[in-house]
Amino acid sequence: MAEPWFDPNHFGAWYGAIAGGGGGTLCGIVGAMGGTLAPRGIGRRWILGLMYGLVVAGIAQLTFGIYALAVGQPYGVWYGPVLGGTVMTIVVGVLIPVVRWRYREAEERRVEAAGLRKSLA
Fold first, then answer.
1. Number of domains in the chain
2. C-alpha 97 chain-centroid distance
3. DSSP string, the chain
4. What distance in Å separates the CA atoms of residue 2 and residue 77, rounded to the nearest whole number?
5. 20 to 30 Å CA-CA from 12: which of 31, 40, 82, 113?
């Protein structure tokens, strides 16, 4: 086993608190904003941008964790990044097409309403 990069107990606790708690909260806030704003057609660019950014952050965590596992780091060093990166990448990655679809529905409703207004005028 390689020399640990960090103290496994402290790193695991701090990583879980900061990346798990903070990252999970951030993902929840972005998801709630997407679920609220997408049906209204508001904020498409920055909501989807935040979601893509979260997927990239999840992939970075997962890459770090897999590399730590591959070089023989202890469980406390690689487990948190692998778990957090996997969850963040999968959950946010799966929801991106759903949010895009909701924005597309909102745009179609807007175009249909504009056409209806023109036909009544």
1. 1
2. 13
3. -PPPSS-HHHHHHHHIIIIIIIHHHHHHHHHHHHHHHGGGT--HHHHHHHHHHHHHHHHHHHHHHHHHHHTT--HHHHHHHHHHHHHHHHHHHHHHHHHHHHHHHHHHHHHHHHHHHHHH-
4. 12
5. 31
Q: Is 100 within the bounds of a domain? A: yes
Residues spanned by the domain of 100: 26-113
As a whole-number percent, the residues of the chain with pLDDT over 70 amount to: 98
- Asked whether residue 120 is assigned to any structural domain, the reply reads no
How far apart CA 44 and CA 34 sit, in angstroms, is 8
- The tally of CA atoms less than 13 A away on the side-chain side of residue 111 is 6
CB 38 within 8 A of CB 99: yes
